[in-house]
Amino acid sequence: MLETLRKIVQEVSAAPDLDTVLDLIVRRIQRAMRTQMCSVYLFDAKKQRYTLMATQGLNKESVGKVSLSPSEGIVGLVGARAEPINLEDAASHPAFIYLQGTGEERFHSFLGVPIIHQRDVLGVLVVQQKERRRFDENEEAFLVTVSAQLAGVIAHAEATGSIHMVSENHQTILESRFEGVPAASGVAIGSGVVKTPPADLSAVPDRPAGDIEAEIRQFNRALAAVRRDIRVVGRSLSKRLRHEEQALFDVYLRMLEDNALAGEVVERIRRGNWAQGALRDVVKAHVREFNAMEDPYLRERATDIRDLGRRVLAYMQEAAPSQIEYPDNTILVADELTPAMLGEVPTDKLAGLVSVHGSGNSHAAILARSMGIPTVMGLVDLPYTQLEGRTLILDGYSGRVYVNPSDEVQAAYQEIVREDQEVAAGLEQLRDKPAETSDGFRMPLWVNTGLIADVERSLERGAEGIGLYRTEIPFMVRDFFPSEQEQMQTYRAQLAAFSPRPVTMRTLDIGGDKALPYFPIKEENPFLGWRGIRVTLDHPEIFLVQVRAMLRAAEGLDNLRIMLPMVTSVHEVDEANRMIDRAVRELREEGMITERPPVGVMVEVPAAVYQVRRFARRVDFISVGSNDLTQYLLAVDRNNPRVAGLYAPYHPSVLRALEYIAQEAHKENVPVSICGEMAADPGGAILLMAMGYDVLSMNATNLPKVKSAIRGISYARASELLDQIRKMDDAEEIHLLLRSTLQELGLGQLTRPSIPDGT
């Protein structure tokens, strides 16, 4: 059974569409379980019916025609209970309904299992036999396992199935919506441009052939180049290979002949597909066929076909024009966005960014927030290769992307864009005004930065300091550790540009989802592994060089603050303090007049929450990293689309922890700041102010909104709101109260937009 399951998984992953998957599943299960019938019923949410979508054993003409409501038949009962039903004689069960024309009257025993994806029942998988018997536990377990595999495929197909191409005219028919992780707020409406890595067949986007003959010529030139390469390699190895091994090169060449792979590609080009897309489709079809073969030697030929396809594709991409025409309002789409990709698009044309993979903490996401470009990541179900030239709406507030949006959705989002522009124009007037409540309470607003380009944008928006400078970013854009002198120059630029305002530099925070290509950290669970202060204390040579560079950069400016990330024990604080003291002493001995700057710690893990007073006795300030703290308190990876909906910054436990931290720090007369995303939300900023936080730090894009919210409320009203929220026990209700409060105060334009139901 295990070997059969392995083959099913392999074949399903290579299948081109849902119909092929379902047909393959019913055939393989029928053969593996030696049953007379296997069928799949899928639930149509719009029609509220289970429809027969594939069968091996029932009348094939019933497929797509026969259906049951959720309250009908044993199939409906399996779906309603969301658990397997195993019957010796299905016809004697009270829920049994005979489906006329299917031929099921021949069968008695019945085993049905639900197909469930993220708590939703997507369908029912059924096997039946003529003789009366109960299926055994192993058979039931096998069917449940297959249904779990099938669930992901069906969910992906439901998400992507409405986007399809009519090959002749490249038109799309239906609107689709995809859920991801918001990485940079804002809304963008524009045209998709797909960026793909070189020589990756799976990443080749769909595109019609502009000039069919030109596409064929380009393909033939690439083909000739690959044939030439294979002959050269074959000749160069001829003396070292046996005759039968040399014959493999002849096999390669035969695969490229006109009556084999090459002929099929040309035929697809003539039908209207561009050369790279035609090659992709032909190679994938051949790979699928070879993978399905029983003979292990023939199965390995799939690797040969894939290799040939990549070689031909590489030559075609090399010959293709390197200059892409970026339309106005380009929405850049990629499997995984990189900073280099952003740099290739003219900034005046770039409206938004979409990435299938990646997280809100990736370098590209940080850069996008810094530039104020709406961004969504983690769209695992997005068929990104099909989005070239499509109309897209990107909602960086909710993490949604709409493809081929309806007129209603477009109108709703165009109104949001207009309102955002009006709000931005109005907020510009607040630049030189303080973030002061209507009853005179002053709230300092700082910014989070990582690039020198952030500084100008931050100052334009009236930032009073830097609450978090991510020092790992200059490390991430290099191929090796920067020297002390190089680091000093980078840090000096930040400190000088913001002088005399304070600049809080976090020591190197790598690990987790922030990796350096030249310092790989491979772990089973990186978020609970070797990261932050744990890495730098284990590598004092890295820590000391960085601290020395910071101290040298601050010479004569005296606006440096050093912050230690991911601290969990006083031992780490004591050891880091000793090393900072050592760096100060060394530089003084070298003739530099160096003052010891204020040193603080980040409270990011639950263990740190209950040691705040102990930390406060050893440091000059406390800063809360609310993003990681929320993640660890709730055991939710906010960058994982499957559970991102459980990431709740306004969860009562999170709010209690945040208030406790502020109270504990103040008991030691130590200032406390916060530099997570909650501080960048106008409602969250009001709550944090009422909790007693001394500084709020956020991305520069959101600073004017937060300032407007604080100026639009009294400190007394904010305290009343906090009292009200302390008594609440539901995160969503708390969030709704914050939004309604802002609306009552005439600040509704600062909250996240909402889209009409049904869109």
UniProtKB/TrEMBL annotation:
<dbReference type="Pfam" id="PF02896">
    <property type="entry name" value="PEP-utilizers_C"/>
</dbReference>
<dbReference type="InterPro" id="IPR003018">
    <property type="entry name" value="GAF"/>
</dbReference>
<dbReference type="InterPro" id="IPR006318">
    <property type="entry name" value="PTS_EI-like"/>
</dbReference>
<dbReference type="GO" id="GO:0008965">
    <property type="term" value="F:phosphoenolpyruvate-protein phosphotransferase activity"/>
</dbReference>
<feature type="domain" description="GAF">
    <location>
        <begin position="17"/>
        <end position="164"/>
    </location>
</feature>
<dbReference type="InterPro" id="IPR029016">
    <property type="entry name" value="GAF-like_dom_sf"/>
</dbReference>
<dbReference type="InterPro" id="IPR008279">
    <property type="entry name" value="PEP-util_enz_mobile_dom"/>
</dbReference>
<dbReference type="InterPro" id="IPR008731">
    <property type="entry name" value="PTS_EIN"/>
</dbReference>
<dbReference type="InterPro" id="IPR036637">
    <property type="entry name" value="Phosphohistidine_dom_sf"/>
</dbReference>
<dbReference type="InterPro" id="IPR000121">
    <property type="entry name" value="PEP_util_C"/>
</dbReference>
<dbReference type="InterPro" id="IPR036618">
    <property type="entry name" value="PtsI_HPr-bd_sf"/>
</dbReference>
<dbReference type="Pfam" id="PF01590">
    <property type="entry name" value="GAF"/>
</dbReference>
<keyword id="KW-0598">Phosphotransferase system</keyword>
<dbReference type="InterPro" id="IPR023151">
    <property type="entry name" value="PEP_util_CS"/>
</dbReference>
<dbReference type="InterPro" id="IPR050499">
    <property type="entry name" value="PEP-utilizing_PTS_enzyme"/>
</dbReference>
<keyword id="KW-0479">Metal-binding</keyword>
<dbReference type="InterPro" id="IPR040442">
    <property type="entry name" value="Pyrv_kinase-like_dom_sf"/>
</dbReference>
<keyword id="KW-0963">Cytoplasm</keyword>
<keyword id="KW-0813">Transport</keyword>
<dbReference type="InterPro" id="IPR015813">
    <property type="entry name" value="Pyrv/PenolPyrv_kinase-like_dom"/>
</dbReference>
<comment type="similarity">
    <text>Belongs to the PEP-utilizing enzyme family.</text>
</comment>
<keyword id="KW-0460">Magnesium</keyword>
<dbReference type="Pfam" id="PF05524">
    <property type="entry name" value="PEP-utilisers_N"/>
</dbReference>
<keyword id="KW-0762">Sugar transport</keyword>
<keyword id="KW-0808">Transferase</keyword>
<dbReference type="Pfam" id="PF00391">
    <property type="entry name" value="PEP-utilizers"/>
</dbReference>
<keyword id="KW-0418">Kinase</keyword>
<protein>
    <recommendedName>
        <fullName>phosphoenolpyruvate--protein phosphotransferase</fullName>
        <ecNumber>2.7.3.9</ecNumber>
    </recommendedName>
</protein>
